[in-house]
Amino acid sequence: MKKLTIIVAIAILLSVQGFAQVKLTVDVKNIQSSEGKILVGLFNSEGTFLEKAYQKTSANAKEGHMQFEFDNVPEGTYTISVIHDKNNNGSLDKNMIGIPTEPYGISMDGKSMFGPPSYEDAVFKVGKQNLTLDISL
Fold first, then answer.
1. What is the pTM of this model?
2. What is the mean pLDDT of the chain?
3. What is the fold, at CATH topology level, of the domain defined by 21-136?
């Protein structure tokens, strides 16, 4: 009976290690002012990219750079968007033709000539190790 208990305990420990979750740190750089908030969204699928964040966080803006952390992030593919919401309305402001009027950044420095960057240009992988990403506004 004692051997069975030990075997079950080892099996449980091994299965838990297979679902390792890591800390993802986002270092937001080039914050030009301390007005408003910095909004950070973590997206876990192409279908929700820039629409519905898997996890999100925010803080009052501080000029220079700020760090944000997402804990217990499972292995997988993700994207991140960062918005400097200067007027605290909770979204990225745009002009009449859709060009952003507030600073923003996307993981992997995803850029686009017209419209928002594609999911493929912004995607990165989370593995078994803690990860830090730099995003410039």
1. 0.83
2. 88
3. Immunoglobulin-like (2.60.40)
